[in-house]
Amino acid sequence: MLSSLRPVTSVRNVRPWGGALSDLRIAADGTWETIANATDTPLQDGEIDGRGLLALPGLLNVHAHVDKSWWGHPWQSYGGEGGTEGRIRHERARREELGIPGLDVTRNVLEQSVRTGTTALRTHVDVDPGIGLRGIEVVREAVAEYDGALHAEIVAFPQDGVLRRDGVLDLLRAAADAGAEHIGGLDPGSIDRDPVGQLDALFAIAADTGVGIDIHLHDSADLGAFQIELIIDRTARHGLAGRVNVAHGFAIAEVSPARRHDLLEAMGALDISMTTVAPLRLPQLPLTEMDAAAVRFGFGTDGIRDLWSPYGTGDLLGIAWQYARSSGIVRDEDLHRVAELATRAAAAFVGRSTHDLVVGAPADLVLVDAENPMDAIVRTPPRELVLGSGRVLWEI
To answer: Is 232 in contact with 262 (CB distance < 8 Å)?
Structure first.
């Protein structure tokens, strides 16, 4: 059941990352205060008995769209045309009818997210001349209802293009000035048909305002790789190392091994990160090559039951399973790495220096009935307890 955000003073008798039984005490500021060997003393008020369950840090959904879903509405049949352009048109035609953006819509998506273990997320929120910055305001309001127990960073996202719609660049700058942590872009080549123009405009805003950049790049193979080269060049030129992310980036998995190596090395040197939603129909981002080049990457759910697709449950652990299974990952060390990518390794995507079961980190935790992190990835068991900043977000 969803909780009333009651505070917890400690979680007792759990196995952090599958290790020894431990007691995790929470400080008044919602961070981990101490982590020590479990004791058999009686439970006190505010303490939870973890019953020997596996403890992981809260899941980090680093590519979401919590502003636009039909969760909570009757079933919506897939309609309109396929492809990115077709889905954009279909969404624009029907979003007002479904109350998008709207507080109830976003509340429903956030509820599904926290009940499956997400405690922090990076969410893209549409901005365009039709809705202005209203979607960002709605998402901020919905997240605020969790009173700090759920953390979210906003990407002001130009779903209908940047240059081809008058006023979008002004909206992106206004969003940055108003506190959005990132601005987005969308397929500079195939949507705006002006990759240099779109990227130059986005990087200028980021350089002026200090926000990050998070670009949806679906364009494949050579076209996508060319745009990644443009992103690399502008990241270096504007001094934005560590502030740029490429979402999807299918081209990385589609170009030759030699070109992929060069792109990843250049991205790693500038700390240009990547996020993936592990699409089943396409090759996956290569785990070992990404790690070898020190390219940070994380997992996201993308849209959840929206006008682009009826699929999606909000379960980030399910996305980690999908990535591992479709990548052919079977070895313990690689499965463990996937668990890290879904949790502590993605901390920077949500503006955190540390997100782990360690002293000083936010007291975000997920308990599951699993033997170890590898078992949790391959079985995706129910989340028994979810804590955000030391408060109960969800419990069975």
So the answer is: no
pLDDT tens, position by position, 254-274: 999 999 999 999 999 999 999
In sequence order, what are the beta bridge partners of 125?
Answer: 156
Asked if residues 238 and 199 have their Cβ atoms less than 8 Å apart, the reply is no
- Residue-wise pLDDT tens digits, 163-208: 999 999 999 999 999 999 999 999 999 999 999 999 999 999 999 9
**Residue stretches of the chain with pLDDT short of 50:** 1
**127/162 Cα distance (integer angstroms):** 10
Backbone angles phi, psi at 178, to 5 degrees: -90, 0
Asked if 194 and 165 count as a contact pair (C-beta separation under 8 A), the reply is no
Q: For residues 300 and 62, is the Cβ–Cβ distance under 8 A?
A: yes
Smallest CA-to-CA distance from 17 within 31, 34, 30, 35 is with 35
